[in-house]
Amino acid sequence: MAASLVHDLRGPIQVISGMSELVQGEDDENERVSMAATIHEQSRRMEAMCHDLLDFSRGEYELRPSSFRASLLLEEVMRELEALAMARQGRLSVAISSDTVISADMDKLRRLIYNLGKNALEVTPPDGVVEFGCSASDTSWSFYVKDAGPGIPSDMAERLFEPFASQGKAGGTGLGLAIVKRIAEVHGGTVRVESVPGGGSTFIVDVPRQIDASEPADPDAQDTDPLPSRS
Fold first, then answer.
1. Which of 26, 106, 207, 214 has the greatest count of CB atoms below 10 A from its CB?
2. Is there a domain that residue 82 lies in?
3. 79 shares its domain with 28
4. Maximum Cα–Cα distance for the chain, whole Å?
């Protein structure tokens, strides 16, 4: 589990390290406050990751559901990945066909989508686009992350979500997708990949739609216009 801890904590550590350097030379007070808030949020995220990794090692996953908008979740993940995207000269875009209020464990889903997004950026060439999206039906909702990488051979796709499996990345331990699969399953959902060799890959997470009856959905959520693509 030491390797898994290093793999998952590397992302927020990079964000904290970068922000702590930037904040020292930032004169604008509003920017300094924003950077401090990001550092605090990433520290909180690291703590949540440690709890999740302990659960993973024990074969347990406790859900802490709340109600939130799909757009909020995707925007937060994209904000966390902006520094990596800039470093790799990649671009991020978002397409949301239904900005519904969903009921799930937001921290765990954030981690799931972050893992998929980070993997996508690592296999996407410079100037390539990584697309995040969400859609919903009466009974379920789906998130997807689409990369512009080399694609995944069919024989590799069958075992891609096993611990220590890896494809198309120079580094990493191969634990990120195993954690993605576990988080999807504890929500009663599934994760799958659609890939064309040389044509990129799309990772799709389908989860039953469950709105917490004690926290009613926003009545405007079902008719929200799709967010424009951001690049």
1. 207
2. yes
3. no
4. 53
Q: Which residue has the tokens 């904040």?
A: 23
Q: How many domains does the chain have?
A: 2
User: Residue 146: its pLDDT value, please?
Assistant: 96
- For residue 131, give the 3-state DSSP assignment: strand
**Helix segments in the chain, DSSP class H:** 2-24, 29-58, 70-87, 106-123, 154-157, 176-186
Residue 120 · residue 151 · CB < 8 Å: no
Per-residue DSSP letters for 33-77?
HHHHHHHHHHHHHHHHHHHHHHHHHHT------EEEEHHHHHHHH
- Length of the chain, please? 231
Same domain, 54 and 85: no
Identify the pLDDT of residue 115: 87
Check whether residue 97 and residue 47 sit in a common domain: no
Does 56 share its domain with 80? no
What is the CATH number for 124? 3.30.565.10
Q: In what order do the strands lie in the sheet with 201-208?
A: 91-96, 129-136, 140-146, 201-208, 190-195
113 in the same domain as 50: no
CA distance 223 to 23: 39
Measure the CA–CA gap between 46 and 43, rounded to whole angstroms: 5
The Cα–Cα gap between 115 and 180 comes to 7
